[in-house]
Amino acid sequence: MNFRNILKVFLIYLLFLSKIIWADKQRIKICMKQPDMPDNIPREEWERYRKELNNYFIEKTKNHEILNNYEIDIYFYPYLPVESSGQPVALNYMNDLASKLSKKEYDFVVMDERILFNEMALMESPLILSEIKYRQPSLELLHDLSKYINKKDLEFHDPKILSYGIYENKIIGIPFEYDFDVLYYHGKDEKYSKSYNDTQLLLQNMENYTWNDLIKQMESNAQPLRVAFGDDNDLLNFIIEYTSNHYNLSPEYDSNYMDLFTNKSSTNYYTEFRDLVRTFSEKNNARNAALTSLDDAYNYFKKNNSSFFKAKASHHYIFRSEYSNYEIPLSLPPKYQTATTHKYLVANKFSKINPELLAEIALILTDKDAQLFRAKNFGSIPTFDFSKMDTDQDLQNYCHDNPILCQVMEKNEKIIH
């Protein structure tokens, strides 16, 4: 072989080597809803979430011969409050997801239980098929990962939360995060001393109060309250909590519990609910209450124009960031009944990534270490089985770092929906 040929071979080898070294990592595309307080959570924080989760994944897979060539790319879906368009937000979201999943735009979606399997509810709606073009999108668009996952690897999850991601023994959704509604209130700050003292009287009776009782007493104290009804999920959470104060909504207790919303007596229910909603806005205007976003409610609270801020338990992280070491105290809602939210990681059946690899990625992003990482860095609440607290050091460590959240989790009467 002459010198020219040797040089050519050498250059080809260098070119090949450089492609291996400098090749872009393949992207794992994950879709999740944007933060539900976009005005108060800066874009920099969204970017930090994206960057930190990717760094976590890269560190976890650095010795994996296949996954070390992948990186995480998160897309924050603009899930806007219902008042911005007047359209059913959830249906538009499902329609958009169905289109983008079939076009392979996402490999995974972080999806809450109100979307996952909702087409298999008590009543099947023809609207799903006509709008989304799939009769059962949860099964037709999402992977069943049960062939690739050992259920023992999922035993650290709360059994109920885990079960809501499984349909007829098919593992469709793996628990990603847990959340529940709370009432934040002002602490012992001179600026808010009267508000604090008045609120303490309310808190003493919170476990026995209904929402009606609480509002009546607040009106007597001349204490304002603004609640976010501009987001469909926040509105539904309040409806569930309010109704559960008066009725048992468990299908185990009454399989026909949905009749409450459709029978003849429902007129009184809706009238009473409307009148209550009016009290949450200036001039008793129900429309104004329905247009209040979570950001609006938080701004009212910061200006002391609302005695409580009704939000998610995970929002405590915002206070930590904004007020440094100052802890904003919190309480469970009336009767200690709180609406819960469970988020699941689901895999796209149309993804170009091998399903066995998708399952492995899903486990890395939802295992104990990943959930504790997100809890520490972003305030998310793990989906752990806290009944194992006495024997699980990880749970003990979490509650040592988050004592207030663990205390209220022990007391709350979860409303599963």
TrEMBL record:
The keyword Signal applies. Residues 1-23 form the signal peptide. Keywords: Signal. This is Periplasmic binding protein-like II. The lineage of its organism: Eukaryota, Fungi, Fungi incertae sedis, Chytridiomycota, Chytridiomycota incertae sedis.
